[in-house]
Structure formats: C-alpha cells, structure tokens
Amino acid sequence: MLTRTLTQAFDQYIFTRVDHILNRAGTNDAGYSKTAREVSAALDRLLVLARALKAEQPEMTGLVMDFEAWAALESGQAAEIAYRQGLKDSSQVRQELMTFLQQQDSRGRFETAEKVPLVLEYILYIVVQYNFILNIL
C-alpha cells in the first residue's frame, strides 16, 4: 500500500515536472518553439486536407486526430523517460563521486582543500564519459 502510494506520488511529480519543463522550453527554447509550431502547422494542414477529402475518405479526419493524440502521448512519455533517466544518472554520478572520495579518504591521500580540484576533475571525467556514450547512441 505504501509503496503504491509513493510510486503514484513520484509518478505525479514526474508528470508535473516534465510538463513544467516542456512549457518553459516552449517559451525559452527557440529551437523547441520552432519545432512545436511546425508540428502544429503540419497537423493543421492535415486536418484541412482530411476535411476536404471527407466525402472520399471519411475515416481520414478521425485518423489524423488519433495520430495527433498518440503522437502527443508518445512525446510526453519520451520526455518522462528522459527525465527519469536524468534522475538515475544524477544519482549514479553522486554515488560514484562519494565512493571515489571515500576511497581517497580511507587512503589518507588528500586534505580537504586538495579534494576540490580532484572532485571537479572527476565530475568532468564522468560528464565526458556520458556525453561520449550519448553521442554513440
């Protein structure tokens, strides 16, 4: 019962956060805004065409509307998956960093002041690895 409630609360948080991010991207990201406008314009043209061909292809309007709904759902799910993976990646980077620092502390190799550049270098190393992997995919 508690696990299900927590899962539902987390799912709602993810949905709300992704929606907020995408709404903000629509106003702050010119590339995303342009793509969203082009997608909307293409769907509008398809609907106009479907209505014009309604006599010959009566199922076309419903098909275009179904496609719009399914495409929006797929896009939202893709954004949620990416956001969840970002949370997992963030947690993994944090765990790797903490493990690395604990290993260094147990060896007595570094004073606190010496750790800062080392930590930054390690974070940069991890970011480069993730970017390399993302570029391969």
How would you portray this structure in words?
Helices cover 90% and strands 0% of the residues. With 137 residues, the chain is an all-alpha fold. It has one domain (2-136). The longest helix has 48 residues, at 60-107. The protein is elongated. 0% of the residues are buried. The mean pLDDT is 79.
Pick out its properties:
137 residues; mainly alpha; 4 helices; elongated
Task: Describe the SSE topology.
Layout: H1 2-28, H2 30-52, H3 60-107, H4 112-136
Helix pairs in contact: 1-2, 1-3, 2-3
Quick summary:
By secondary structure, this protein is mostly helical. The chain is built from four helices and no strands.
Report mean pLDDT, rounded to a whole number: 79
- Give the biggest sheet: none
Question: What gap, in angstroms, lies between the N and C termini?
Answer: 38 Å
> How much of the polypeptide forms β-strand, as a percent range?
under 5%
Structural class, by secondary structure, is: mainly alpha
Order of helices and strands: HHHH
Number of separate strands:
0
Helix content: over 70%
Number of discrete helical segments: 4
What is the count of distinct domains?
Answer: 1
As a whole number of angstroms, the C-alpha radius of gyration is: 23 Å
Low-confidence stretches: none
Large-scale geometry: elongated
